[in-house]
Every structure is written in structure tokens, then in C-alpha cells.
Amino acid sequence: MTVLDSNTDFLITPPEILGDGQESITDFQKGAVLLIDKPVDWSSFDVVKKIRNLLCHKLEIKKLKVGHAGTLDPLATGLMIICTGKATKQIDSYQGMTKEYEASFRLGHTTPSFDLETEVDNLYPTDHISPELISQTIHGFIGESDQVPPVFSAKRMGGKRAYEYARQGKEIELRPARITIHEMQMLDFRDNILRLRILCSKGTYIRALARDMGAALDSGACLIELRRTAIGQFSVKEAVLPKKFEEMLNIM
Known about the structure:
This protein is of the alpha+beta class. The chain is built from 8 helices and 15 strands.
């Protein structure tokens, strides 16, 4: 695990974190930045709540300010930057960093939510799809564009979250947002499953990218797997699962 000092952003390696357990534990209360690997089926709120509860119990306090620098859908896994104490003031700077994902799209299928949260609503032919066509299509998505967010999202409209309208079956129109796809690389394509590595700007919805790529390929597509592998210079390889973080706290 990597912990960043909230004042200097100095990277602290695991042995230095643990030490003798006496000096480092209070750093979480003063302000620290944690790299956490979110498990599947956890909401971003679940991660924040778990970290807060663990730290409050360990520190024997009732309250601790804890926040995250970018949400992940429950079905997604991967890197979340969790800030505690005074380090929560840095959240905006971390949110603005580029994000890297590994995503799997299923071609030939669409769903209302553009992922597996909802059932398949349409099937499309895929006989015309080839690696060459995919490569050409990928090239067209590189750079800046206006992306319409998914209706099954936390975007606010009229005082409510967009997903509240969507779950009630109400049709709404969300304003497009300017995004940038810096890089997109095909990692694999077989059995109509397209695996991609995507480097993109803040605010990019990978589910919406699946929708738009499916439309461009004339095959439809939905997101079936998503893992955030990096935020700025921080890699998920440096992160730990909440369970591992709990184990580390227990020996501090």
C-alpha cells in the first residue's frame, strides 16, 4: 500500500507505514491519502464508509472526515484515492487527473444502463465486425468530443439524480460534457468481447463510450467489465483491498 503525506505528497513505502505502530496511526487523523482497490459490488460510498469505520475504531474517535477523489460504479473494480482529515482539501486536484481503465465491451448487445446493471434490451448482428474495423473505429474516438452521460448515472437534473428518473421509466435528456480520450488500445477481441485500455479525462463515462462505440460499429455494445488501473501517476498496483487495509491496521 502507498500512503501519501498530505503536506508533502511524499510516497511512504509499506515498511515505513507500519514502523512500530506508534508514530504512523495518528497520521490518518491529521490527513493522509490512501490508494484502495475497490472490490466488485461495493459502491464508492461503501469504500469510504468502511475506511472511516476502521480508522475511527482504531483511533478510538467518533468522527473523521473521509472522502474519495472519483467514484466507481458498483460493478467496477480498481483504484480509488481515499483522503482523510486535512487531506480531503486535496480531493479536487486528484479528481482532475487523467484516468486509465481496462474495459470489456460485449458487441451485439445493448442494455438501458449500457452495462450489466440492467437486462439486455436489443441484439444486433456482428458478422461484419473485424479487428481492422475496430482499429479504425478506435482511431475516431481519440481526442476531444462531447459525450452524453448515461441516464443511469448520478448526474443531477431538476434536483434529482438522473438514475432516479431512469428507474421510474421517465425519459430525460442530459447535456453533453466535453471529454478527452488520450489513448485507446485494443488488448483483445474474441467471441464478440472487445477488451480495451483507455486513458481519458475526468468525467468520461466508459459505459457511454461502450454505447457510442457500439453505434459507430453498427453492432451495439455494452460494458461487461471495468477496472480502473491508474489515476494520474498512481497505479492500482500500489493499492490494497479494504480487507488488506484492515489487516494492516490491526498490526499497527
